[in-house]
């Protein structure tokens, strides 16, 4: 373990990068979304001053984004969603993005949260996920939460602020890809073990 899932801090002596984001991030967690499986908390670890994590079930209404708060958007592909570029062009800059931390099957429940009703929605361009836990009936464009945060911020900087992206917050994905490397290594070891067992069984027959 490299960091505490619940306090969202790296453990003593463990390196973690810190990044400056082009706007703030609010994360609203589904009650069934385990911290140990959540990629969203990586944002809090790497950009703690600009990230708030709120639990859907226990957070106070005052903690959840105010629907009347200007310059705030929900990153979600609703029928009314517009691109980040169009939002900035027609409505102005974004101060904070809001994301829902849940599976694609839980998102319908999250959408009913009263405090986010009325928040303007923005949708992202289509990207291919690098997530290692695919969800049933969700294609490779279904991003992990931290990937959605990263691409939303990148689109805001590139298309909204018209500022070339030069990797300023690539480290937002640091823990995500470190976890992926660990999973890939374990899978490789498993497949190697299976092949070894098959070879040994063949030689015995």
TrEMBL record:
Location of the protein in the cell: Nucleus
Coiled coil regions in record: none
GO molecular function list: tRNA-uridine aminocarboxypropyltransferase activity
Broad class of where this protein is predominantly found: nucleus
Example of a GO biological process term: tRNA modification
This protein's GO CC annotations: nucleus
Keywords carried by this UniProt record: Nucleus, S-adenosyl-L-methionine, Transferase, tRNA processing
The enzyme's E.C. designation: 2.5.1.25
TM ranges: none
Domain DTW: 1-186
Function field: Catalyzes the formation of 3-(3-amino-3-carboxypropyl)uridine (acp3U) at position 20 in the D-loop of several cytoplasmic tRNAs (acp3U(20)).
PANTHER family xrefs: NATURAL KILLER CELL-SPECIFIC ANTIGEN KLIP1 (PTHR15627), TRNA-URIDINE AMINOCARBOXYPROPYLTRANSFERASE 1 (PTHR15627:SF8)
Name used for this protein in its record: tRNA-uridine aminocarboxypropyltransferase 1
Species: Oesophagostomum dentatum
Source lineage: Eukaryota, Metazoa, Ecdysozoa, Nematoda, Chromadorea
